[in-house]
Specification:
The structure holds two protein chains of two kinds. Chain A is mainly alpha-helical. Chain A has helices spanning 2-6, 10-29, 31-42, 53-89, 94-122, 136-164, 173-186, and strands at 44-45, 132-133. Chain B has 22 helices and twelve strands. Classes of the chains: A mainly alpha, B alpha/beta.
């Protein structure tokens, strides 16, 4: 099976890799939804608040999700551009790979900084923030988990896009895995 | 069985044979319609020379050996390897050194037959007087082991005697290929202005034809390729080979052909000539190119570069082999340019079979650039920057080995040593042509430095004769994936062979425009 996949026409291999990158990115973008319920439930407002708690919670969650998905999508877009260039050129120039990794790191750092801005500056400045009642432990989680989850997902996507499903001439891990399997079955 | 036999006589013959081998490696026979699939077609190249320092012949032998190590062995193992079009090299029968050259056994251990005097010992009286009157003392005393040196009168005396002696069964082996049911085309190649070729080609062609026709035989066509003067030597005035004597020698030889009915009955006579060109050759130590002088010392090596006229003759030889009717008259058109800035042969249109000749030459140049200037350079880099082809064919641990380049990549068995050797011999042939009148057509050295520089940076942004580097590398990467399919159930030794075959096929596929 592995040797059959290795012998697929190049166009099909590229199509499958791009498809897998898109699916993985969509999957990573959906990670916040795993925490959606607990975040929404945690929002309780004190008496006298001018807005409903679920409205605030939804606004908070959708803003966080958009931030999360936008940066991952931007990373995917950049990696797809590099992937196509690499597949077209069939070269192994080091500077392009370095640039790609640098841009990915910038996106990760940029994402964390933007998240920091939302959680530490933007939301606390909102009028309704003063009515929000959080337990201290949840506040701690809210302030740190988004960065950690984003950073983890972004690093994971970087590994997927650059190394696992990378262009053929960069000897991607998927090819190594398939080659190892093909060699194992050949012996 | 279809046999294409080339008998190269003398130095010029050997160099035409080099061009024939190079063009056969480039797939010219297949392009001209020869059925190259199966083991039913084979090219057999044999050399006739009495010069023991025949470097042109040694280069020819090395070229065929390298070709068989890189390509021929795989055709023998799998005759249908090249049946799907594209670059289809012809099988060249691998001969041992003994079978390859007509060892006339004039010299060697314990044998003292270096002069005419040594061959006609014991002559007294009238026979002695006759010999002395026919041959001057310098002829009788000349060193035969250095070749006939523009003295066909010496050669013509020797060949009849040597053909009949048939050392090592050289001629009977050839005759055995002409069995009933076999189709054989046999071409003799040599110059008309030298000594060995001028005397050997007509004498031996007539003798072989006569002997074959006298016995039971198959379907044969005999051809002769004659090279009229096409080069000149910067020689001292007392040298035995003088370029200004070439036209006179040639006229004498052509007169002989004109008056001999047996020669005129040959199925094909190809005559190729050119302006007298000074030959440029490469100094191995300094790598500088310099014009060749004649060596006064008879024991000096004859190692001339390949010239465009020899390539043209080789194309004609392939036409003779491939033609449906070997009697067909072939007239090559040759345009010359008044533009002195251009090299003598600046376009493929100036060669016979222009489209095919150009295609084959470009295939070979791309092959050499890809292998020697790109992959050989890349093979010395760290594993993480190596292109996919290296990772496809070798395991990670092997690539990480500090001595991988020397121990594996350059190795004949475990690596690509055989294919690299072929590329090196082809490169020598191509650069000879480039420095002797085909600079603008081949552009070899210019492209070589462009490809090398690109390889150093891991780039592929170059183009060699309208084929881009990215196309070549992409095709090689993809094609070598067949390795994983082909090695199923094979032992380690077989895997090494499959690796070479897969890489070679990938390169051939990548370097052709089909």
């Amino acid at each position: 099976m592995a040797s059959r996949i290795l012998n697929w026409p190049r166009g099909i291999k590229i199509f499958v890799k791009v498809l897998l990158m898109l699916i993985c990115c969509a999957g990573l973008c959906a990670v916040p939804f795993l925490l959606q319920e607990s975040v929404l439930r945690a929002f309780v407002l004190s008496a006298g608040a001018s807005v409903a708690a679920d409205t605030v919670a939804n606004m908070f969650f959708s803003t966080m999700f958009l931030w999360f998905a936008a940066f991952l999508a931007a990373m995917l877009l950049i990696n797809l551009i590099f992937f196509i260039i690499d597949e077209c050129k069939n070269d192994t120039v080091a500077w392009r790979r370095t640039l790609q990794i640098t841009l990915n790191i910038i996106i990760i750092v940029g994402g964390v900084c933007t998240g920091f801005f939302f959680l530490m500056r933007h939301f606390p400045a909102q009028e309704w923030w003063s009515y929000v009642l959080f337990s201290m432990s949840f506040l701690k989680k809210l302030l740190w988990y988004p960065y950690l989850i984003f950073a983890a997902c972004a690093v994971f996507q970087m590994i997927l896009d650059i190394w696992l499903f990378g262009p053929q001439n960069r000897n991607p891990w998927i090819a190594r895995i398939l080659k190892r399997a093909a060699l194992k079955s050949a012996r | 069985m279809d046999n294409y036999i080339l008998i190269a006589v003398g130095g010029s013959g050997a160099r035409v044979a080099q061009s024939v081998v190079a063009m056969a490696a480039a797939g010219m026979p297949g392009e001209l319609g020869v059925n190259t699939s199966g083991t039913n077609s084979q090219l057999i190249v044999k050399l006739v020379d009495i010069d023991v320092n025949h470097n042109d012949g040694i280069e020819l032998y090395e070229m065929i050996t390298a070709y068989n190590k890189a390509v021929g062995q795989f055709i023998s193992e799998n005759p249908t390897l090249f049946q799907n079009g594209g670059w289809r090299p012809l099988q060249i029968k691998l001969l041992t050194q003994k079978d390859f050259i007509f060892d006339v056994q004039l010299g060697g251990a314990g044998v003292k037959r270096e002069k005419i005097e040594d061959l006609v010992t014991g002559l007294t009286g009238d026979p002695r007087l006759l010999l002395d009157s026919l041959l001057g003392q310098d002829d009788r005393q000349m060193n035969l082991l250095a070749g006939c040196k523009a003295r066909p009168r010496i050669g013509s005396l020797l060949w009849q005697y040597l053909y009949t002696a048939d050392a090592n069964g050289f001629w009977s082996d050839i005759r055995s290929l002409m069995a009933p049911g076999n189709n054989t085309r046999i071409m003799f190649v040599g110059s008309v202005f030298g000594g060995t070729g001028a005397s050997g080609v007509p004498t031996l062609a007539k003798l072989l034809r006569k002997t074959v026709n006298a016995g039971v035989h198959g379907n044969e066509a005999f051809g002769i390729t004659l090279l009229t003067p096409y080069f000149q030597l910067a020689s001292p005035t007392d040298a035995p080979v003088l370029s200004n004597k070439f036209p006179f020698e040639s006229k004498m030889a052509m007169g002989y052909y004109e008056s001999d009915p047996e020669l005129l009955q040959m199925d094909c006579i190809q005559i190729v000539g050119d302006q007298l060109r000074s030959m440029m050759t490469k100094n191995v130590q300094t790598e500088a190119w310099y014009p060749i002088d004649y060596t006064l010392d008879d024991t000096g090596e004859q190692n001339n570069p390949s010239l465009p006229a020899e390539l043209v003759a080789a194309v004609g030889v392939h036409q003779f082999f491939a033609a449906k009717d070997p009697d067909a008259l072939i007239i090559h058109k040759y345009d010359t340019s008044a533009n002195e800035a251009l090299s003598a042969v600046y376009s493929a249109d100036m060669l016979p079979q222009a489209q095919t000749s150009g295609k084959c030459l470009y295939r070979l140049t791309r092959f050499c650039h890809a292998l020697l200037d790109y992959y050989d350079q890349m093979s010395q880099k760290k594993p993480n920057v190596l292109p996919a082809v290296f990772h496809n064919l070798w395991e990670k641990g092997e690539l990480r080995d500090r001595n991988w380049h020397n121990d594996k990549w350059l190795n004949d068995e475990q690596g690509m040593g055989g294919i690299l050797d072929l590329a090196k011999t082809i490169k020598r042939w191509l650069t000879d042509l480039e420095h002797n009148g085909m600079r603008d057509l081949l552009d070899y050295e210019k492209n070589s430095s462009i490809v090398s520089n690109a390889a150093k940076k891991g780039k592929v942004g170059f183009s060699v004769h309208e084929k881009t580097g990215k196309d070549i590398m992409g095709t090689v990467n993809n094609s070598t994936n067949a390795f994983f399919r082909d090695i199923i159930g094979k032992d380690a030794k077989a895997v090494m062979k499959i690796r070479q075959r897969v890489f070679m096929l990938a390169l051939l596929r990548a370097c052709t425009t089909d």
